[in-house]
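User: I'm curious what two different proteins look like when written out as structure tokens. Can you demonstrate?

Assistant: Sure. I'll show them one after the other, since each token string lines up with its own sequence. Here's the first protein:
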Amino acid sequence: MSDIRFRKPDLTIFEVLKTRLSLKKTFLTNLILLLILNLLVKPIWIFGIDRTVQNTVGAAEYGLYFSLFSFSILFNILLDMGITSFNNREIAIHPQLVSKYFSNLVVLKVILSGLYVGFSLAIGTIIGYSEKHMMLLVFLLVNQLLGAATLYFRSNLSGLHHFKTDSVISVLDRFLMIVFCGILLYTPLTRATFKIEWFIYAQTVAYLTTAAVSFILVYKKITLFRPRFDFNFLLTIFKRSYPFALLTLLMSFYYRIDSVMLERMIPDGEMQAGIYAQAFRLLDAANMVPFLFGGLLLPIFASMIAKKQEVVSLMKLSFNLLITPVVGLAAVVFFYRVEIIELLYLNHVENTSSILGILMFSFLAISLSYIFGTLLTSNGSMKIVNLISLAGVITNIGLNLLLIPIHGAVGAAFASFTTQVISVILQIYFCYKIFNVSIAWREAVWQITYFTIAIITPMLLHYYNQGLTVGIVVSASVCIGAAIALRRINFKVMLKILRQEEV
């Protein structure tokens, strides 16, 4: 493999430094915007709406929805075929091709949508879904179709580095669902008769609106839109995007197969899936920030690699910015898991808190994957990424088959944890090997010291019976102070990057 850290010979040192700082500034400014928008909208959706729906309809009814929702994600490979990730990377490298790609790929997406819906319904029939299952599944498949369309439209916006527009679109569907579901849940007349079907229908309207808005925004960015079916062009795209399609399939399985297997494998499957969903909701909420990192880093890493620019410094910057709050958050949630679950839910507190504790360890591994897995994907190291994901699928399904009949939802959580840890260790290994990353001993000592402080602080607070509020406030204060003192968060460096000054 060629050394991607070589610089273009026709660039001066000043131009190289200016470009690096400009890309770091792009990353930081848009990360800040994304965080603000998502912190304003998604916690309200997750805890104000999604959680309230489960408490209103009950664990079993929500568990049915959650397992069907996970099932609707499993075959997204047919809906996307890796086109979104491929398109994001390609448009970031070749922005002049956006009109040509968009005109052809929109037609392909329509064809794939029909294939996805038909295949998913066929599999649902084969595994024995009832009439009620199938009715709900149809709407969930439509929601996936609309969500995938929005993601594809957004891949064009982020590929063209219109990150601010993409950031707004990323929260629009959730904002609309908050409005629609909020009216249904908090109006006394409709709350008393609220059904899980209403929750799904509200999502459909929100997704449809967001897809329409995102399509219009992309349409305004392109010079020519002439939908057509060019078989040779699409065949070429398939050949280049199939590694991304395989990655989509594998990741869908080892992220979402747990709840589907829970619902199908054991007598009280719907209830166990609902209990698992209660804990998974916290993981989903925590995962918001790492997910944003990955979405921003993919086009930026791809652009830097294509221009043969050094990416290790950006990788280290993103690592410090992400892992610092993630470790602190995971530690607080782990030690105060019972208190948090008691605050959020009405039933199944003990089982849910046990699952949450396991999932918080998974959260650490997932967060790291959004940096190292994204870097490998941006580099085009798809064979490595797919082999790692395949190992994850085999591990996850095997452990679920072994553990779910014995331990139910707790077994599924342990299977997820094991899978995520194995996957991220392999990703880190190959990143360090491919990009020749070196770590100074002082940097490692500071990092370990910070981790120790972030973990011990909430542990001691909980041991001495300090309440949840005190635990959160004190732990956050100590972590912020330790991060600054140990230079895990260097505000001077961040300000220089935002001003595009040399660091």
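Here's a second, unrelated protein for contrast:
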Amino acid sequence: MNHIVSKRIVAEAERSGRGIALEDLRGIRGRVKARKPQRATLHSWAFAQLGGYVAYKAQRAGVPVVYVDARYTSQKCSSCGNVDKHSRKDQATFECTCCGFAEHADRNAARNIASRGVVDWAAVKRPNADAIAA
């Protein structure tokens, strides 16, 4: 399944001429608080394997990949930038307590990851000021 998903992700990035932003998921199993029924599903999914497949397939295709800090991506409003844990009404619902923006919680988090990816990619491509001055 991870091969299929990673192939589709890379193909879409290549088709659209964009890069890929992934959450830096190191230590996720220790950070996530899941109810007992959700633990088996969470711990059986191979995060590292999927990330590895995306990375190597993207490299072969010439698609840039950046890893972004995952903190607060599900609590931050992708419209106004407000961070509030109460904006996450439940697993599927995001409604900003500041501006009222509402959409599926995963889509909102994906927008936040994408915007962090754009910022991180710009930082990677920015020339080193010290090297220019020398």
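A detail about the second structure: The helical segments are 2-16, 28-31, 36-44, 47-61, 105-125, 129-133.
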